[in-house]
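Chapter review: from sequence to fold.
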Amino acid sequence: GILPITVVIPVLYMRIGQGGSRLKSAKRTDNKAANYDDDRYWKLGQFYYNRDDPAIFVEKRFGIGYTNNWAHPVSWLMMGGLLVLIVGSLIATFVASGSAH
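The token string follows.
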């Protein structure tokens, strides 16, 4: 149930750390992608936009988690798909509630 989740998630956060700096495989040896922390790739300080970076997701600058590389077309496709799913669910709910009366 919920016990494994409440134990595993904090352990993963402590193990991975910010930026994955504690993982051996997370250290980049190639210089193909630019520095993720470079201010010129962060619009309004929150939105990562780098056309030269092939990654779809990158580490957030602050806190824990990932954000989209908004210069990557797949990011826009995923957000569009999510929007379609949400709007479709709302429409289906309204249609179902309207036919129940």
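Two observations follow directly from the output. The chain has a mean pLDDT of 79. The two ends are 38 Å apart (CA to CA).
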